[in-house]
Amino acid sequence: MKKNITKAAALLVLPAAFAAVLALPVMNNAALVAHAEENEAAALFDLDRYATGDADSAEAYEGAPAKSAKKSRVAKDRAANLPSQVDLSQTPFFPPIGDQMGCGSCYAWAAAYYQFTYEANKLNNIATNAANAYSPAFVNNILSGGEDVGGVNTEVYDLLSKQGCLHMADAPYRSTNGASYVDPDNYDYSWSTDTEALIEALNTRLSGHNAATITSRGTAISGPNDSDLDEVKGLLAEGKILNLRVQGPSWDSDYRTYIDDNGNVQRYVNANGDYEFVSFRAKSARGGHALTLVGYDDTVWIDVNGNGAVDEAECGAFKIANSWGADWANDGYIWVSYDALNGTSAISGNWESAYYGTRIGIFDRGTYVNGSYNVNGFYYITVENKDVYYVGQITIDTDSKYSLTASLGRNTADATAMANYFTVFNPDYYTDMPYTGTLVFDYAALCSPISEYISGYNWFLNLTGDYNSASFRITDNLSNTIVDCGALTSSTIYGNISLVNGDLNYDGTFTQADVDYYEANSENLSVLQAYLADVMPEEPNPDDPDDPDDPDDPDDPDDPDDPDDPDEPFPIDTPNYTISYEIANAWEGGKIINITLTNTGTTAINGWALRAEDFGGNIVGIWCADLLSGNVISCVGYNAVIPVGGSVTFGYQISEPNGNEPTFTAISERTDITEDTVLLFDVFSSWGEGLVGQLTITNNSESTITGWEIVVRAENLVITDASGNVITDNGDGTFTITSGTANGVLAAGASISFGITASQTGTPSITLVSMTGISVA
């Protein structure tokens, strides 16, 4: 039998205890018991030699899925179509095996280096190498607080969703003293000062994450064809690699086996002449480690019970990538038996009496995953390329970089207080480490869709923490300044952005200079400039007396100062609404029209919508509202509610004006879609009389609904808060919840979720009584 001497030598670098158990010959049960008794600690990974770093956390995991990151729906009948083997580590997108060495950074290697690299480079069809893989150091250096404390995958996912990640070439994993071995005493916690690379990282970011689970209670898995494996196998077969969190690890392992032609059990030797190692049991242990699931093979077998026969429960294993270097186990990988996921083994015999410790599901970290406990968790992500329009750049000098917290916000141009804000940076440590450089952040959802936010808003930064000096500007993704806000003299600073279509130099007007800029730089425009160029109007000639778009021409039919101008603002008679319009800009072949809705009724309007009888031309763009179909315009979340006496304004652009006045009618009739609505209630945590949970509403009707309102029956609880939605206690055990400003529009087939806080008196439940809304498309 072939034995690779090189591999045998490499095994010497394994932990002594681990190497001892892996070197066990295949024995009968009695011999195995005897040997195990002599080597009680032989099955442990040597955690004095190998670092881990998956931090203990009592926080429950809840998925944050994007549209493309919904739970996998592998049907039961699909099991027959699943391949018997999948190995995503052999694709060109998976990075080389890495080595965290002596630092507790496994969480960053698993989630950023392995998982994010694979997904991002697969998305962009880039073959991965050691330089373009994404850097665990970038992640660890921000999240660790400058200390060797480890972390969890959700922290990484949040960072990757807001800032993306630098490549290994831009943020190497290294020591401060040039030593090749990195440990907590010499690890380089520095932050990048490469502004261009940091902005480039914003282009590809995590868009969602979720988890599949397999129970670790009892015996869920009886063999490789068990349906409990289908979802995880299906994700792998669909090309998803999975993040794992484990206790310890404290695993029992041995050589992979096979039966030769003479019926004898032998150690399996792969195509490289190497033995392969399989972990088949885990026990409860302190601490944690993060790993990466890259494939599976239903044919992997290890004779766990030593009976010399291939038992079904012994067959099949997942392929795991570790971050302990390529010399560890199977060239940096290890197999994990399907049976190891069971809380109670399906393998027959008394073999387990030879092993000490409380058996657990091998991928059970001991936390809640999507509302379930005692489960093996498998975390997957989606990644997308972003259009980055507004970049906040903070140039800062600080002696305590981990004390900084940054939030971005947006408000209307007449407001000086920050609103609609979200936190983009919060290491939440006070380790004294200096940094002088520029931090960059994307305004992201605050300026989406960009057509609604090129003008009329103030853009805010709130920065807290200890720093010597800081200044702030907002740029495009090529670092061209849109507005320079100057030095921070207080925690909050803002700048106004007022652009117009075609305004490529960001001076607030469309002039010949913008046309010249476009002609000189058309191949090197920023994302924002490319958008503004796409909607660039034909420039009017102000010196042409016959120019119909000359605002100084008294005969101009669109002259805003002409009292007989048919396009002057006028009221449209609609119950509870006054709808007026004005021509904001006009040129030959096009106009920009602003529409203002004023609530003249006696109650607030929630979820307004209009039907356009005539736009006055062909509509080519709209902002501060949604065009849901050919002629239906609906509110967006932030302006869904119009208080009594209040108003909202949206605008649109037309081409080929037809000479008619814009004509709109209000859509106000509410529709009952109770039968087409699904309501789900999840409890996240509860204590005494307190409860925090979530409601999810799914609109299964064929219409988009705005201004939704649900009535729910709450058993044994009183709802006190609904995350910005309006609650009315009806006094009969039911509550009316009306959409707030963040989620008032619910598309056909879509779902929305929002948190609730409640007091409870017993086992809580929430059921749907009714659902109504304004059907707009």
What does this structure look like?
With 777 residues, this protein is mostly beta strands. It has six domains: 5-54 and 211-382, no CATH class; 101-207, Cysteine proteinases (Cathepsin B, Chain A); 391-498, no CATH class; 499-536, no CATH class; 572-668, Immunoglobulin-like (Sandwich), CATH 2.60.40.290; 671-775, Immunoglobulin-like, CATH 2.60.40.290. The longest helix has 18 residues, at 106-123. The radius of gyration is 31 Å and the shape is globular. The protein starts with a helix and ends with a strand.
Short recap of the structure:
The protein is mainly beta. 12% of the residues lie in helices and 35% in strands.
SSE map:
Elements: H1 5-10, H2 16-22, H3 29-38, E1 85-87, H4 106-123, H5 136-143, H6 153-163, H7 195-201, E2 204-215, H8 230-237, E3 242-247, E4 251-255, E5 257-259, E6 265-267, E7 277-283, E8 288-301, E9 315-321, E10 333-337, E11 359-360, E12 375-385, E13 391-398, E14 405-412, E15 422-425, E16 435-442, E17 455-464, E18 469-475, E19 481-487, E20 492-498, H9 512-521, H10 527-534, E21 572-574, E22 577-587, E23 590-599, E24 605-606, E25 609-614, E26 618-623, E27 626-627, E28 632-634, E29 641-642, E30 647-655, E31 663-666, E32 670-672, E33 677-687, E34 690-699, E35 705-721, E36 726-729, E37 734-738, E38 745-746, E39 751-775
Features:
Cathepsin B, Chain A; 12% helix; eight-stranded antiparallel beta sheet; 6 domains; 35% strand; mainly beta; disordered N terminus; 39 strands; 777 residues; eight-stranded mixed beta sheet; 10 helices; globular
